[in-house]
């Protein structure tokens, strides 16, 4: 590499003829109107890509697990993880992913408990999505934010502002309305099954959703605690998460799920078999798409914009359930979706204000702050 300072010196050291004209500018290379560079730095496209990836992931999961006789959730999640790992390794081989560290046994042992928590999170999420509609699942998923927030208060010294508490109130209120609307729809016969079966299905869904909330919070809080010690980057986290869950998921599938030919035929009916397989493969790819689009959105916009997009994205995900899966459209369900949407916006705004307040406090003061006598004594003791 040449030294920039020495280059500048040689250009002005008097050896060049001062009467020589400036060299003609190099010809401009013709570039296509929409180059890859423009796409890669487009805020609008990154936001659309992130929204489409998350919506398609939820819809695909719901499609795969919503079969009448579906009972192979561990197998489905294992396929997701395998597809994800194969895709990551292929991207590393062709140079798309360059910052993935080699596999380390010691790191794998330390990360394995986090992967077990991940299995609990994705399994309970799949079971909840199997019994609940997409709008209700999306609304109840907001409750995870509350558990994580108070977990951070207890374990990491976080804080909850009044505006954040307001958003939590909206989240709880929207969940209550969603549950009430679902129960009313079941009692009114809007579901295909009879009333008692529909109520039993909803109760199972709420039970799995409750377990998913706590499993998700445990996974997120545990990962936050361990990830700082491991010094993992995004691709490292995804690689270890998926790789270490594969043996757990396969063992759980072999031990707890029915692998008889009759059960396989019920889970994969001939008329929808190919579509289910395509959905299972796509769900593994979608996990990578979401991770990439999240990083892309943050890079070309800001973390603030990303937070707001995540809040606004709740609405199209919930609406997609109404469109693709014929979920009951009632005043209660629409109200729950809207209130949950407002709760997400209020929460995102609360986090933005909290981050701005923290940044303002971290700025160096321009005046010497007033110090109490005890603090002054402690300072003098340290100096001495």
TrEMBL record:
UniProt keywords, alphabetically: Cytoplasmic vesicle, Endoplasmic reticulum, Golgi apparatus, Membrane, Sugar transport, Transmembrane, Transmembrane helix, Transport
InterPro entries: EmrE-like, TPT_transporter
Function field: Involved in the import of GDP-mannose from the cytoplasm into the Golgi lumen.
Membrane topology recorded in Swiss-Prot or TrEMBL: Multi-pass membrane protein
Residue spans crossing the bilayer: 70-91, 111-133, 163-181, 206-227, 239-256, 276-298, 305-325, 331-350
UniProt region (Disordered), positions on chain: 1-32
Start-end of Pro residues biased regions: 21-30
Family: Belongs to the TPT transporter family. SLC35D subfamily.
Main location: Golgi
High-level lineage: Eukaryota, Fungi, Dikarya, Ascomycota, Pezizomycotina
Quaternary structure (record): Homooligomer.
Record bears the keyword Secreted: no
Compositionally biased region (Basic and acidic residues): 1-18
Cell location: Golgi apparatus membrane; Cytoplasmic vesicle membrane; Endoplasmic reticulum membrane
Native source species: Zalerion maritima
SUPFAM superfamilies recorded: Multidrug resistance efflux transporter EmrE
Gene Ontology CC terms: cytoplasmic vesicle membrane; endoplasmic reticulum membrane; Golgi membrane
Full protein name: GDP-mannose transporter
Family matches, as NCBIfam families: nst
């Amino acid at each position: 590499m040449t030294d920039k300072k020495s280059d500048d010196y040689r250009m002005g050291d008097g050896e060049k003829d001062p009467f020589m004209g400036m060299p003609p500018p190099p010809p401009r290379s013709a570039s296509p109107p929409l180059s890859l560079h423009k796409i890669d730095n487009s805020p609008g496209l990154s936001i659309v890509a992130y929204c489409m990836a998350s919506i398609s992931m939820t819809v695909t999961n719901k499609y795969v697990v919503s079969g009448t006789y579906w009972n192979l959730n561990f197998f489905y999640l294992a396929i997701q993880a395998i597809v994800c790992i194969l895709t990551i390794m292929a991207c590393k081989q062709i140079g798309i992913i360059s910052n993935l560290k080699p596999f380390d046994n010691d790191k794998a042992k330390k990360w394995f408990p986090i992967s077990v928590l991940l299995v609990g999170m994705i399994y309970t999420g799949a079971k909840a999505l199997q019994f609940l509609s997409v709008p209700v699942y999306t609304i109840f998923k907001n409750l995870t934010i509350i558990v994580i927030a108070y977990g951070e208060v207890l374990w990491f010294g976080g804080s909850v502002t009044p505006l954040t508490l307001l958003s939590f109130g909206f989240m709880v209120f929207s969940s209550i309305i969603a549950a009430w609307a679902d129960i009313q729809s079941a009692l009114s016969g809007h579901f295909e099954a009879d009333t008692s079966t529909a109520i039993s299905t909803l109760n199972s869904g709420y039970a799995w959703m409750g377990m998913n909330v706590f499993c998700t919070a445990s996974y997120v809080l545990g990962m936050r605690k361990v990830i700082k010690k491991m010094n993992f980057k995004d691709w490292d986290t995804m690689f270890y998460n998926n790789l270490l869950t594969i043996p757990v998921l396969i063992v759980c599938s072999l031990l707890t799920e029915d692998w008889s030919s009759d059960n396989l035929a019920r889970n994969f009916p001939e008329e929808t078999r190919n579509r289910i397989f395509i959905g299972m493969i796509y769900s593994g790819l979608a996990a990578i798409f979401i991770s990439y689009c999240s990083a892309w959105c943050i890079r070309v916009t800001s973390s603030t914009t990303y937070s707001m997009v995540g809040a606004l994205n709740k609405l199209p995900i919930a609406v997609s359930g109404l469109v693709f899966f014929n979920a009951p459209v009632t005043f209660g369900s629409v109200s729950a979706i809207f209130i949950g949407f407002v709760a997400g916006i209020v929460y995102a705004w609360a986090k933005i204000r909290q981050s701005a307040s923290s940044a303002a406090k971290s700025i160096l003061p321009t005046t010497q702050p007033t110090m109490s006598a005890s603090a002054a004594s402690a300072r003098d003791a340290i100096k001495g």
